[in-house]
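Our platform keeps sequence and structure together, in a single record for each protein. Such a record has a labelled line for the sequence and another for the backbone structure tokens. The tokens are whole numbers drawn from a learned vocabulary of local backbone shapes. The remainder of this section carries one protein's record, kept here as part of the documentation:
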Amino acid sequence: MINGAFGSGKTTVANRLIAEIPNCMLFDPEEVGYMLRNVIPENIKRKEERTNDFQDLE
């Protein structure tokens, strides 16, 4: 897992590692978050989860 501030080069480092490590892949959890935001019905979300930010989903 690579973590850090916005714009610090995490994606660049990850792509360079992929080129060096056989049979690895880049997993972007934001893509899963965007999907969850779109597939979870509003009526089952808690009040505090009803935002446009998937990070608010518990």
